[in-house]
């Protein structure tokens, strides 16, 4: 059953050095505050998983938290590259970064397999691409019924999945709406989970199209107003486009990034 914790306590108790950690959220409800708390606590040697790593993963990589990234697309949406990501891959700064690249369909199916308790998923999506030659976790498989040549990808079962949502009640039931991506599957696939929310309420009001994660599938809930900013939270605040543009200048320069990192972590220059 979900515990109501502070974000600091949830990260300290549930995210460990060497863990495989998924911070999911597509376009909105991105758990930025949680990612920055991982940086503050100096977690290391993480395998980071995310379908679309954006600036919070750039921050985690630049801070030296990651040893590997499993992903299907990476960039600063609407702006350009992730410069800390590029620096780690191309120049091993601040530490070398191993990458494992998949398609969006492959990543989504890996989460579904993990959530379903299956060892792998099967799809057609890699046919005609060179990803199987680049990624060891993409393997050809033959359908035993039709003989069709398909592709298998292993299940994703993160040690901990972190997502952001709009609301939770005091029992730990979580409610999210809008573009929800693979958050539900990522939580169900994980051994442990942290959900940050805009607010904790006495009762969840029904909303059309909302996803409800029951308390028994969530490990911890932390109330973190604004926890998705600069992404947006439907019904609460809009996307801060200026922050994404500003990150391009911060991220592309090691000195500027180091200054930002010191301010985040409270280290005096």
Automatic annotation (TrEMBL):
SUPFAM superfamilies: NagB/RpiA/CoA transferase-like (SSF100950). This is CoA transferase subunit A. One of its GO terms (molecular function) is transferase activity. Belongs to the 3-oxoacid CoA-transferase subunit B family. The keyword Transferase applies. It comes from the Bacteria. PANTHER family: ACETATE COA-TRANSFERASE YDIF, CHOLESTEROL RING-CLEAVING HYDROLASE IPDB SUBUNIT. InterPro entries: CoA_trans_fam_I (IPR004165), NagB/RpiA_transferase-like (IPR037171). It comes from Amycolatopsis nalaikhensis. Keywords: Transferase. Pfam families: CoA_trans.
């Amino acid at each position: 059953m979900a515990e109501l914790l502070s974000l600091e306590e949830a990260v300290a108790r549930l995210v460990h050095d060497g863990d495989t950690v998924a911070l999911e959220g597509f376009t909105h409800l991105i758990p930025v505050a949680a990612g920055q708390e991982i940086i503050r606590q100096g977690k290391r040697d993480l395998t980071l998983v995310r379908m679309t790593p954006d600036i919070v993963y750039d921050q985690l990589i630049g801070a030296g938290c990651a040893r590997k990234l499993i992903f299907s697309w990476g960039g600063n949406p609407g702006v350009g590259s992730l410069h800390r990501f590029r620096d780690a891959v191309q120049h091993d700064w601040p530490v070398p970064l191993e990458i494992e690249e998949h398609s969006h369909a492959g990543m989504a199916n890996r989460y579904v397999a993990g959530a379903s308790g299956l060892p792998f998923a099967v799809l057609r999506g890699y046919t005609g691409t060179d990803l199987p030659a680049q990624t060891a976790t993409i393997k050809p498989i033959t359908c035993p019924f039709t003989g069709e040549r398909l592709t298998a990808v292993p299940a994703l079962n993160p040690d901990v999945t972190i997502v952001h949502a709009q609301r939770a009640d005091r029992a730990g039931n979580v409610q999210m709406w809008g573009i929800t991506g693979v958050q539900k599957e990522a939580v169900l696939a994980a051994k442990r989970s942290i959900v940050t929310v805009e607010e904790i309420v006495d009762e969840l009001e029904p909303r059309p199209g909302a996803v409800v994660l029951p308390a028994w599938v969530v490990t911890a809930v932390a109330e973190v107003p604004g926890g998705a900013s600069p992404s947006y939270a439907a019904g609460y605040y809009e996307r801060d486009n200026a922050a994404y543009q500003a990150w391009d200048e911060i991220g592309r320069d090691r000195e500027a990034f180091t200054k930002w990192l010191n301010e985040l972590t409270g280290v005096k220059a």
